[in-house]
Amino acid sequence: QIGSMNDSQDSLDGDLMTCVSSIYRVAVLGSLGVGKSLLINQFTSSEPLGTLQECSSDSDADGVSIMVVLNEQETMLQFMDKQEDVTAATDILPEAYMVVYSCTCRVSFKAAVQICQHLKEHVQTDKSVILVANKADLARRREVESDEGRRAAFRYECKYIETSAALGLNVDELLVGVLSQIKLNLHPEYP
Ligand code: GDP
Ligand code: MG
C-alpha cells in the first residue's frame, strides 16, 4: 500500500507534509465572483468526510491545505486559488484542476470552457479536471442549464458537478470527487 504511493511522494517538497502519507495540489480556476473562495472555505468545515483539521498554508496566502480522511486514508489536499491565470508559469504542477463557473453567469461559463480547452491542449491527460457549476441555489437567475454544463464536461473529458457554496450543497461530494479522481488517475489499479 505504502509502496504504491511512491510516485506521488517523489514530487513532494517542503516540510508541511512530513506528517501525512500524501499531498495533492488542486488548482482552482474560474472567473472572479463565481464562488471559488467560498467553496474552498466550505471545504475547510466539511465534516461528514472526517476532515480532521484545517492546516494553514505555509507560504502564499491563496493556498489552503485541508486534511481529508477517506476510506481510512489520510490525504492532504492543497487548494490554490488561481482565478483565470491558467497559463501562469508554475514550478509545481497540480494533480487536479477545479474549473468553476457560476450557472447564473454565462460569461463565466464561457471562460470555464476556454480553461477546459486550454487544459486539454496543454496539460498532460493524466490530470484530473472537474467542471464545477456553482450557485445552483440561485434558480431564478440561472443562465446556464445543467445539460449545457454536462455537455461541455463530456466534450473536455471532465467530471461535472453542480454546487452551492452558499448552502453547502454538494460541497462534500465535490471534495470527495476531487480526491477520488486524483487517486483514480494516479493509481488506476486501486479505484
Ligand atoms: P471568487 O471570486 O470566485 O473567489 O468568488 P467568491 O467566493 O468571493 O464569491 C463571490 C460572491 O458570490 C460572494 O458574495 C459569495 O458570497 C457569493 N457566492 C459564492 N458562492 C455562492 C453560491 O453558491 N450561491 C450564492 N447565492 N452565492 C454565492
Ligand atoms: Mg476569491
From TrEMBL:
GO CC terms for this protein? Answer: plasma membrane
Q: Does the keyword Phosphoprotein apply?
A: yes
Give the UniProt keywords, A-Z: Phosphoprotein
- GO: which molecular function terms? calcium channel regulator activity; GTP binding; GTPase activity
Q: What family is it from?
A: Belongs to the small GTPase superfamily. RGK family.
The name of this protein is Uncharacterized protein
Q: Which organism is it from?
A: Potamilus streckersoni
Which part of the entire sequence is included in the shown chain?
124 to 314 of 360
